[in-house]
Amino acid sequence: MAPVYAPAAIIPVRGQGSRVWDEQDREYIDLTSGIAVTAFGHAHPELVEALTKQAGQLWHIGNVFTNHPVLRLASRLTESTFADRAFFANSGAEANEAALKLARRVAHDRYGPQTKKTKIIAFSQSFHGRTLFSVSAGGQPKYSEGFGPLPQGIVHLPFNDIDAALTEIDADTCAVIVEPVQGEGGVVPATREFLQCLRCMCSKHDALLVFDEVQTGIGRTGSLFAYMDLGVTPDILTSAKALGNGFPIGAMLTTAEIGEHFTVGTHGSTHGGNPLAAAVADRVVEMVNTAHVLEGVRDRSASIFASLRSINSRTGMFRELRGSGLLIGAELSDSYRGRSKEIMTAALDEGVMILNAGPDVLRFAPALNIPYECIDEAFDRLEIALHRVKGAKASAPAPVERSA
What we know:
This protein is of the alpha/beta class. The protein folds into two domains: 12-30 and 291-390, Alpha-Beta Complex (Aspartate Aminotransferase, domain 1), CATH 3.90.1150.10; 45-288, 3-Layer(aba) Sandwich (Aspartate Aminotransferase, domain 2), CATH 3.40.640.10. The chain contains twelve helices and 17 strands. Helix 2 runs antiparallel to helix 9, helix 10 (291-315) runs parallel beside helix 12 and helix 11 (340-349) crosses helix 12 (372-390). The relative contact order is 0.16.
């Protein structure tokens, strides 16, 4: 394999729900969901059934034809959101690539091929994927350096900076792309006022507002999509990660008026919307979009925040706890800055899988249906790991009261 990853020392071989086992049959509690992907954990029986049933019927047919699973998925997503049209790809990067291309195409069609309306506004510390266009829109130079020349016309502003948005979004802007919660950038939620400002400025200047909900969507924040709780509706929304619960699929959702600018042949994907991926994703969306699951996300979120606050009262390792739903970040205090990878390794040694979001933030993105006993056990293990990092012997963690 190309050496673009630095994998952990263990190799997982089996998973069930929120627990994973390695080659030595050692058990771990998974608080990562494969980077916010396995929304219902590993090997969920209903999703296994959806996949295997479709596998016995039709795997792939190509976009010369359509298929029933993708038509069902498109209907389910558009009936559940602001959107009228869906385009399917294989990843979040591809969904964002489609969104950015569509925004440029809309400006081209509305204002002519010589238009100056090509500027795309993005934000520092954002992450939108690894294609050349999407990585250029991302606000982290470490991911784009060394791959130039990069696509032009992308301007990065400080996140949550209303004054900068008021100044820079203008008549030459064709799109603004933003994450409702910056995931890779440190688990930083956008303020409601900031997103409302973006909506207002896009409407004023005939620019498209693109919400990158690759990480926040499909129930992660306690709603089917994060925009639904923010009082701001985008023109384009992108989704992936949890959409297929681990089976690769991405989606771009938009209105009929905007979607009509993607005419036959202007964009496409060989595997996008194939029957296998679409069948699984359709079942995922059906399962997520229920009051029981979404209320459960909010309750589990409160439980995890309570656990982290309790741990911090004994360790003092966190400067700030933040996030939304089951996308939670714990920023390390000044004495432990730069040590997130070390803590990840220590946690793995204690049997709990966690993520980071840069060198200073621990990130937690467990399955939406993680059992409460797994939460309690995982954070007991994490506290032991934190004490190890501190260089002090762990005392028995105090029980954490959980909301009903």
